[in-house]
Amino acid sequence: MTNELRVRGRSAAPGFAQGPLFVIDDAPATADRRVGAPGEELAALDAAIAAALEGLGRLVEGASGTPAEILGFQLAILGDEELAAPAREAIAAGRPAHVAWREALDAEIAGYATSGDEAFAARAADLTDIRDRVLDAFAGAERRASIPPGMLVVAVDLPPSRFLAVDWGRGGAIALTGGSSTSHVAMLARSHGVPMLVGVDATLQDFARRASQPALLDAEAGELIVAPSGSAREAFRRAAASYARADEASRERIREVARTADGTRIEVHLNVADPGELEALDPAICDGIGLVRTEFLFERSGGLPDEDEQLATYRRLVEWADGRPVTIRTLDAGGDKPIPGLTIDGESHPFLGMRGLRLSLARPDVFRVQLRALARAAAYARDPGQLKVMLPMVTLPRELEAARTILEEELRTLAAAGVRHARPRLGIMVEVPAAAIAADDFAADFFSIGSNDLVQYVAAAGRDNGAVADLADPVQPAMTRLIRGIVDVARARGIDVSLCGDAGGDPRALPALLQAGLRSVSVAPPRVARAKAAIAAVRLPSPAANTDGRHGD
Amino acid sequence: MSQEEARGAALLVNPIGLHARPSVKFTQLAKTFAAQVEFALAGDGPWIDAKSPVKVMRAKAPRGTTLHFRASGPDAQAAVAAMVALIERRFDEAEPPAGSSAEAGA
Asked: Which of A80, A112, A275 is facing B15, going by the closest CB pair?
């Protein structure tokens, strides 16, 4: 009861699981190797690598699909003599083989981990896996204690080979204090249906003290509960049961368009943080892309992305969508998303400071490049309205006007230079209460309600503070009234309105959002199936019964 | 006598860049040629062995990078043409069937 530990994490694979906590905090056992002369040490390294290659080869034979590709990558890397070259040099200079190998691989891993590109950094786990396989081979050890089935596995990160050694068919889940939703192990977890959280907000030591205690993992709410109270167990049981029912029903229907129980058509779009996520997805599951976060382009090392680099990415999104609308948000740096050399350090209230469009207007050099790339990408759209440019953190109408002026200038520049381009639609993200209240003052081509930020500003409850999470209910009356007001303005003006916060994929929030008049939401790809299922369960009051739009629960 | 030299370049347009899966295809293809095959992120180098997965991954080439190729050896021309074609085909990864890139030729 009082012993209960609740920690938050980001969902990397959906689902619910319960089981004993299994904490992985082990280093490979190279303990008491006898160290020989450099010649013997070189031979020992060769033998260890050969043994590790053989083990990997056996795993590859038994694998197919994604696991085979991941192991194939490891095999290619370990089979490349270049990998061990620095270790060989160190051994020749007198270093013990296992130490030289560890140091060489740690340097290689650091190169991946610090690349500034999340996709590359995620491959560090593969290198760690390779390192440990060879270290294990030195020790002549069997692969370290295998993970029993049905465990809630907690680790800093989990190498793909350890994931693949577990029988997940008998339950279990993963919580990583580090990790990334684009890592190989996250891809594996999604393909095996293993619930997984990354970035869990506690240290491994916090968990080590509680090894084998019973635990619950809710990858929908993004929560891990150790030693749960009776009431926590009961709440979990109910949520898991309703998830299982919805999951079953939703999977068959993911390609069907979403309709409420009374037949009202609801558009479901995708939120995209990295275009890599789209690789494995069929565009038929969605009505378009409702939010592309372009920050990923700016977070890599090597400075700001140039116009051609941006164009290549935007064009790829437009082509993927195959005629469906694609909403690309201009750079939304600042707040909790600092970008070196661009955002302002040391603001006392970053969420109330220079972020989003405010920063873009202060740095028109960066903004103009992005707008040009977007206008050029619009030329690849099937019809001119397919590409929608969305401005974040708009507060006053004059900011939208300033952005439109800059866009028009860049369109003229492109025309004068004879560069192929088209005029995209220009809309705003409604996430500042000032814009939500006075939506009718904004001459936007569309609205998209950013419910995550809007609720934190409306409720004065920070998203980064779990202690006030209860206040940040995205469908509290203040929010549904604001949303209804925005929807009414959009209807009257005949422009699109959607919602692109987490609430759009939350079955608990969806009924209230639809009753407030929304007919379009945008959700993360793993949430599409459940959002559609949740929509199907909503019965909207008939229009006649809803004319005053206000009476409700 | 048959010591060909060849050069070429292609823009990395697949979404994740020269990455885990693509790097395996990349090096496997390079290894099918007798010629020495190298690539660089700039036209003037530094040149990187296209047959080494470790070196290819170290290059960390993200999408939007132009990859420059050079090869020398008996089948240098064919090697560069094949490498450029692989990149232009986006490593054959999960693409909508466009049906337009099938004319790479020899």
From this structure: A275
CB atoms within 10 A of CB A13: 23
Q: How far is CA A226 from the centre of its chain?
A: 25
Q: What is the pLDDT of residues A57-95, one digit of tens each?
A: 877 777 777 778 888 899 999 999 999 999 999 999 988
How many Å separate Cα B49 from the centre of its chain? 11
Could you tell me what percent of chain A has a pLDDT over 90? 50
Interface check A279 vs B, CB under 8 A: yes
- In the sheet where A16-23 sits, what is the strand order? A5-8, A223-226, A214-218, A16-23, A152-155, A173-176, A196-198, A10-13
- ipTM entry: 0.80
Spatial distance between the Cα atoms of B67 and B8, rounded to a whole number of angstroms:
8
Which of A143, A124, A144, A273 lies closest to A184 in space, CA to CA? A124
Q: How far apart are CA A147 and CA A168, in angstroms?
A: 10
CA dihedral A402, A405, A411, A415 (to 10 degrees): -150
Quick check: B63 and A126 CB within 8 A? Answer: no
Give the best residue of A309, A311, A314, A318 to mutate against chain B (max B CB count within 10 A).
A309
Contact B90, B13 (CB under 8 A): yes
For B82: left if phi > 0, alpha if psi spans -120 to 50, otherwise beta; the answer is alpha
Q: Does domain B4-91 have CATH number 3.30.1340.10?
A: yes
Q: Could you tell me the domains of chain A? A: 5-26+145-237 (3.50.30.10), 38-138 (1.10.274.10), 257-539 (3.20.20.60)
- Look at A115 and B60 and tell me if their CB atoms are within 8 Å: yes
Closest Cβ opposite residue B94 in set A184, A280, A306 = A280
pLDDT for the residue A146: 67
pTM higher than 0.95 for the full model?
no
Active site residue A184: yes
**All structural domains of chain B with their residue ranges:** 4-91
Measured distance CA(A531)–CA(A246) in Å, rounded: 10
Using alpha carbons, list the distances in angstroms from residue A370 to A235, A308, A366, A379.
46, 10, 7, 15
Instruction: Select from A120, A129, A131, A294 the residue whose CB has the most chain B CBs within 10 Å, as the one to mutate to test that interface.
Output: A120
A292 Cα to chain B: minimum distance (Å): 14
* B24 chain-A contacts, CB cut-off 8 A: 69, 72-73, 76
Name the residue in chain B with its Cα closest to that of A107. B58
DSSP letter assigned to residue A330: P
Chain B neighbors of A279, CB-CB under 8 A: 15-16, 93-94
Give me the count of residues in chain A.
Answer: 553
Per DSSP, the three-state class of A30 is: coil
